[in-house]
Design brief:
With 187 residues, the chain is α/β, with parallel strands linked by helices. It has helices at 3-22, 32-38, 60-68, 139-143; strands at 46-48, 72-77, 85-88, 93-95, 101-103, 118-122, 125-127, 132-133, 151-154, 160-161, 175-178, 181-184. A seven-stranded mixed β-sheet has the order 3-2-1-6-9-11-12, covered by helices on one side. A three-stranded mixed β-sheet has the order 8-7-10. Strand 2 and strand 3 form a beta hairpin. The chain starts with a helix and ends with a strand.
């Protein structure tokens, strides 16, 4: 990646994070089930998701909608520079590192993402090819290669963009979910 591309990523992150600070909350509760069903995922199967922070689209209500529909929901647990650990979400959360909340259940380890039928991935932006821009910590970059299922980036409409700089380690998204619904990628 060139220094111009690296600078573009940094500039995009700064711009997107600033926009999220003033954005209206976006729960996605009304569209998440149709997105999961679009991939043929049925109740009883596992969906890896996340608890929204810092203006990210999504909500605990979105997780509860999935659970109420019969899906097993796993949430990430940040463990330093290693791939994310995962634990089942049963509605109970505890404080985690970096001011995050995490599931209170037993930790299943990084390989648990491999049991998922679908992964809902937080993103600052995603492009029409499926390139995802994260917050820059690399947690998902280290974890997504372990997933053997569709990966769906979750963003606002304005964060679904024509093009983003890509790096060799980037795992492409199979779809993007916005408050308007699901779009399969690449376009």
């Amino acid at each position: 990646m060139t220094s111009d591309e690296r600078n573009r990523k940094t500039t995009e992150r700064t711009r997107l994070l600033a926009a999220r600070r003033v954005a209206e909350p976006s729960s996605l509760s009304s569209v998440v089930l149709s997105a999961v069903e679009a991939f043929g995922i049925v109740p009883g199967q596992t969906v890896c998701a996340y608890l929204a922070v810092g203006g990210e689209p999504g909500s605990a209500e979105m997780l509860d909608v999935l659970r109420s529909a019969g899906y097993r929901v796993l949430l990430p647990i940040v463990v330093g520079a290693a791939p994310l650990d995962w634990a089942e979400y049963d509605g109970v959360l505890r404080p985690g590192p970096y001011g995050l909340r995490e599931p209170a259940g037993a930790v299943l380890g990084p390989a648990a993402i491999g049991s998922a039928a679908l992964v809902l991935v937080p993103a600052l932006a995603v492009d029409h090819r499926g390139v995802r821009l994260g917050r820059g910590g690399g947690h998902y970059d280290r974890s997504l290669p372990l997933a053997r299922c569709p990966k769906v980036a979750v963003v606002r409409e304005s964060e679904f963009v024509p093009s983003l700089p890509a790096e060799p380690h980037d795992v492409l998204m199979d779809a993007v979910l916005t408050p308007s619904g699901l779009v399969k990628l690449p376009l």
